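chain below, 316 aa
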Amino acid sequence: MLKNRRTDILHSPLFLLSLGVLLLNDWYLKHQFHNWLTGKLSDIAGLMVIFLFAYAFFPKQAKALLVILAGSFIIWKSPYSQWFIDLWNNLAPFNIGRTVDYTDLLALPVLLLAWYYAEGRRSQPTKKIWLSLIVFCSVFAITGTSKLTEEDIQRYEKIEKVHKEYVSTYTFKPRQLDPNIRSRLEKLIFTLPDQKILNQRNIKVEDWVNEAFTAITYEFPRFYVYTWVYHEKPETPTEYNISPREKCDQQLALTNDKDVGTFLGASIKFSREENGVRIELVNIKLCDIPEKKTTAQALEYFVKNFIGRIEREFYP
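prediction:
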């Protein structure tokens, strides 16, 4: 039954360490501290445990597992998974949830580390006496990591309420960008991959590569820029998502302090065409503090507080 499987991975030091960290973090540390560190620990340990657990039973499908898990994690951490969460919470006996935070994608390289570890570890006899217990603990840890406590539910409901009340999304058509703004955005996008400038400005870059796409994160002092470059469909526009390190809706919900930042995110599309390049500002998300802005005001705010700020980072 265990032929062609690598269940010995389940009692390897890295797997047991990751499983222990996941259980400790999700069932104790999160409730005691509930900060960004516990959130990132959950993502890192969770990805490690899930990949190694799946690899133990399907070692020959390792590359497919990488792609599936990476894609699933990206979708799970995006708004596109909300329909599934809503459906689950309406039908299942317990609620699940997650915070849409693109900084969580920084955990993706852990999948490559898990893959290298599993592939490089020599096969060993499986200790069947412990296997059932380890499998039970693994399933418990994996399914429990997204289960919400009553405190979590109240926290997410508060953030969702504030988000609906205070957050506005402003959409734009290409003609709404004057040539000067379009030119500035184009210059920034072409500058982002310049490793020399990134090194000079101490801007960290994380990337995760597979056969389908490359996910890249640029870490600025007060925000992140994320992008996905698709290898198989080069005609697909490259989307750049900007996210602040501190989100105004979460700060407002958890601290009730209205003296917080306004910028919540933005999305820019970039594509190459026969006549040059095309830049499109898809949307801007702002917290309506102290009041809701017009589309023109939102664009002015974005130009001043994002384009201007990143230009100062690149061209001080």
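Residues 7-148 form one domain. The chain has two domains: 7-148, 159-314.
thats it, cya
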